[in-house]
Amino acid sequence: MTDQMQTKNDPYLTLPDVPAFEVRSSTVADRTPFAQEQYSGVFGVPGGRDISPQLSWVGFPEETRSFVVTVFDPDAPTGSGFWHWAVGNIPASTTSLAEDAGSESHELLPVGAVVFPNDAGLARYIGAAPPAGSGVHRYYITVTALDVDRLELDESASPAFLAFNAGPHTIARGTLLAYAGE
Q: What does the pLDDT read at residue 7?
C-alpha cells in the first residue's frame, strides 16, 4: 500500500484536527487485511460472515461523554464511499466492543447505543465486499469521542448524517485501518 493511496480520499483529512487516541483490536491489526469473518456473506463473499471486529480504545480525553464507532470504505466505487457500520450514543464508560457486536441482535452493544442503517440499509455491521477489479479497499474503523452524552437523532438517520451531527461535538478520534480486496 503506497503512502499516496493511504491519503487518497482519507475521510478525516479535511476535518478539523482533534487529538488522537489508540484503537486496538484482537481481530485485526492496524494496516493489515481483514480476516474472512469480516467479509460479507450478505453480499455473497464466499466464507464471509459479517462479523464486526473486536475493538477497544484507550487514551481518550477525560471529558469524553460518549462515543461513536464507524466503519467506512472510501474506496468503494460509488463516488461517495460505503458506510459498513455506524453506532452512536455509546456511553463514555464503554471502552471496548466484543467481536460481533455489530450483529443484527445488538445484544453485545451497551444499553443506550443506537445502530444506524449502513449503506446497505441494514442496522448492523456489513462486511467487506470489494467488487472484483476494484483494487484494494481501505476500511477506516473509527472511534470518535464526543462532549455530549447523546446525539438526538432518529434511528433511521444515515451514517453521514450521524457524522455531520457528531462533528461539532468531536473532541478526539482514534482510527484503525484495515484492508480488503485484490
A: 58
DSSP structure string for the chain: --HHHHHTT-TTTTSPP--B-EEE-SS--TTEEPPGGGB-TTTT-TT---PPPPEEEE---TT--EEEEEEEETTSTTTT-EEEEEEEEEETT--EE-TTTTSTT-TTSPTT-EEPP-TTS-SS---B-PPTTS-EEEEEEEEEEESSS-----TT--HHHHHHHHGGGEEEEEEEEEEEE-
Q: List the grid coordinates of 45.
A: 463473499
**Cell 469521542 sits at which residue?**
145
What pLDDT does 145 receive?
Answer: 98
Indicate whether this model's pTM tops 0.85.
yes
Res 81: pLDDT: 95
List the chain residues with pLDDT less than 50.
Answer: 1-4
